[in-house]
Design brief:
Blueprint: H1 4-20, H2 23-27, E1 30-37, E2 45-46, H3 48-55, E3 62-73, E4 76-87, E5 90-94, E6 97-102, E7 108-114, E8 121-122
Length: about 120
């Protein structure tokens, strides 16, 4: 099982890569058969290629992130992640609560992001 320290480090890397990394760098944090459900209730993205495609949408924006309150229990972590995306003259802010599970190697096996359109601000 991944250690709490490994899990915290992957979560920190995730926040950094969402802000500044490429979609492939973000996807590299996941296992080949991982599942992303973002937001919860939408069709999941299954497998690293689908996950990389999903995160590709971030490449068109200037992103900043703020990691909030990481909690680790067993092979899972829950945390807040404030994401501010600027595209042109529009700024979108969303603050999901993400829940991730991890494999023994410390890679993410699943991620579920809890947020809705009502939680998003657009300026």
């Amino acid at each position: 099982m991944a250690t709490p320290e490994q899990i915290r480090e992957v979560v920190a890397q995730y926040a950094k890569r969402v802000a500044a990394g490429s979609a492939s760098e973000i996807a590299d944090l996941y296992t080949p058969d991982a599942i992303v459900e973002d937001p919860v209730g939408t069709p999941p993205h299954e497998g690293r290629a689908a996950i990389e495609s999903f995160y590709g949408a971030l490449s068109q924006a200037e992103i900043t992130t703020e990691l909030q309150g990481v909690r680790v229990a067993g092979n899972s972590a829950a945390f807040g992640l404030k994401v501010i995306a600027k595209t042109g003259d529009q700024t979108i802010t969303v603050e999901p609560i993400d829940v991730m599970t991890f494999g023994d190697d410390g890679k993410i096996t699943s991620m579920r992001a809890f947020w809705s359109q009502d939680d998003m601000t657009v300026e």
